[in-house]
């Protein structure tokens, strides 16, 4: 048996088409401002991808690059200006930030209604209270990938490996809101395989290449691989490896590939969140 491949691009295209239609109904195209500090190559490439996709989706976007020596004070004051600018609907501060900057402070400084990453404590609270407005792009993208391929998690056992702010934690909230029975495993979980084998839906977001091997997956599980591990190669493009070993395809019912699985959904969901932010702001003005 070989698992069904849950490809990201077709699901992302469907979400982008819906998002473009919503954007077109607004008085003007929603605007996303992306702040990037420094020249980390992965950040340069991700930010360029987001900017390009925004424009392809009929949104307006701009990228502001600040030096990696930017002080926290200067960054916070730019964020305050963007918060106050009625022409800016969404703000994204590309992570990771340079080590002299307090990430929590920066993320908490965003206007929660412009926080398209969904990392602000108000948005975390909305998610866990069961009524999300802007929730983190990767986990929301995972939920829409599942529904695109016809899967419902209601009443099913969902196991998440990883408890990050960006993926594990918010995914737990979303799955709970969708009526799954949710377990969050992490680096201190003893006998991880015994926990993951119980999953009907297994989500892995740890950042350890090929952590999940076939013996850790129950027959017929749906496996979502959120890991992106860069394997640098001499003189060649880095190879991307997931957190799930490809041989898991021999036991799982369905599996997302890396690359070409969850990654494209993250970007598509960022566009959807930008439109949601603009819609929310238009309602507040009514
Ligand atoms: N404030 C903030 N918000 C983010 O959402 C955010 C961030 N910072 N920092 C970095 C991570 C990473 N991230 C990805 C987005 C798309 C792909 C993606 O499209 N990946 C492709 C392959 C891309 C490639 O070839 O490198 C794929 O998996 O098929 C991956 C990773 C968003 N992030």
Summarize this structure briefly.
The chain has 286 residues and is of the alpha/beta class. It has helices spanning 8-24, 41-56, 72-84, 103-109, 121-128, 137-148, 168-177, 192-196, 262-285; strands spanning 4-5, 31-37, 60-66, 90-93, 157-161, 181-185, 201-204, 222-225, 229-233, 236-241, 254-255. The mean pLDDT is 97.
Supply database-style keywords.
286 residues; alpha/beta; Rossmann fold; 2 domains; six-stranded parallel beta sheet; three-stranded parallel beta sheet; 9 helices; 39% helix; globular; binds 5,10-Methenyltetrahydrofolate; Aminoacid_DH-like_N_sf; Bifunctional protein FolD; NADP; EC 3.5.4.9
Provide the β-strand percentage band.
Answer: 15-25%
Query: Mind telling me the C-alpha Rg?
Result: 19 Å
* DSSP, total strands: 11
Relevant CATH superfamily of the largest domain = NAD(P)-binding Rossmann-like Domain
User: For the largest beta sheet, what order do the strands appear in spatially?
Assistant: 1-11-8-7-5-6
Q: Architecture of the largest domain in CATH?
A: 3-Layer(aba) Sandwich
Number of domains: 2
Using the coordinates shown, work out and report the CATH topology of the largest domain. Answer: Rossmann fold
Helix content: 25-40%
Order of helices and strands, N to C? EHEHEHEHHHEHEHEEEEEH
Distinct ligand kinds? 5,10-Methenyltetrahydrofolate
Protein name: Bifunctional protein FolD
Binding site for NADP(+): 162-164, 228
EC number: 1.5.1.5, 3.5.4.9
Organism: Deinococcus xinjiangensis
Task: Compile the SSE list and pairings.
Elements: E1 4-5, H1 8-24, E2 31-37, H2 41-56, E3 60-66, H3 72-84, E4 90-93, H4 103-109, H5 121-128, H6 137-148, E5 157-161, H7 168-177, E6 181-185, H8 192-196, E7 201-204, E8 222-225, E9 229-233, E10 236-241, E11 254-255, H9 262-285
Parallel strand pairs: 1-11, 2-3, 2-4, 5-6, 5-7, 7-8, 8-11
Antiparallel strand pairs: 9-10
Helix pairs in contact: 1-6, 1-9, 2-9, 6-7, 6-9
The protein binds 5,10-Methenyltetrahydrofolate.
5,10-Methenyltetrahydrofolate (GUE) binds at residues 46, 92-95, 117, 137, 228, 240, 258-260, 263-264, 266-267.
């Amino acid at each position: 048996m070989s698992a069904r491949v849950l490809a990201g691009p077709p699901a992302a295209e469907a979400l982008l088409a819906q998002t473009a239609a919503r954007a077109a109904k607004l008085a003007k195209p929603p605007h996303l401002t992306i702040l990037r500090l420094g020249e980390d190559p992965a950040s340069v490439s991700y930010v360029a991808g987001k900017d390009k996709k925004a424009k392809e989706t009929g949104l307006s976007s701009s990228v502001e690059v600040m030096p990696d020596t930017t002080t926290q004070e200067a960054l916070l004051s730019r964020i305050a200006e963007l918060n106050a600018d009625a022409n800016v609907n969404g703000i994204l501060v590309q992570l990771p930030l340079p080590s002299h900057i307090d990430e929590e402070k920066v993320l908490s400084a965003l206007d929660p209604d412009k926080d398209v990453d969904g990392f602000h404590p108000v948005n975390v609270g909305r998610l866990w209270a069961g009524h999300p407005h802007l929730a983190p792009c990767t986990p929301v993208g995972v939920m829409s990938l599942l529904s695109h391929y016809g899967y419902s998690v209601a009443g099913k056992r969902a196991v998440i490996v990883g408890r990050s702010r960006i993926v594990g934690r918010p995914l737990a909230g979303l799955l709970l809101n969708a009526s799954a029975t949710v377990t969050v495993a992490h680096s201190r979980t003893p006998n991880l395989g015994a926990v993951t084998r119980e999953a009907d839906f297994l989500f892995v977001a740890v950042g350890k290449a090929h952590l999940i091997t076939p013996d850790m997956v129950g027959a017929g599980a749906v496996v979502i691989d959120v890991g992106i591990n860069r394997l640098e190669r001499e003189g060649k493009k880095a190879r991307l490896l997931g957190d799930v070993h490809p041989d898991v395809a021999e036991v799982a019912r369905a599996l997302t590939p890396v690359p070409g699985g969850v990654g494209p959904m993250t970007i598509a969901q960022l566009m959807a969140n930008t439109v949601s932010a603009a819609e929310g702001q238009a309602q507040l003005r009514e």
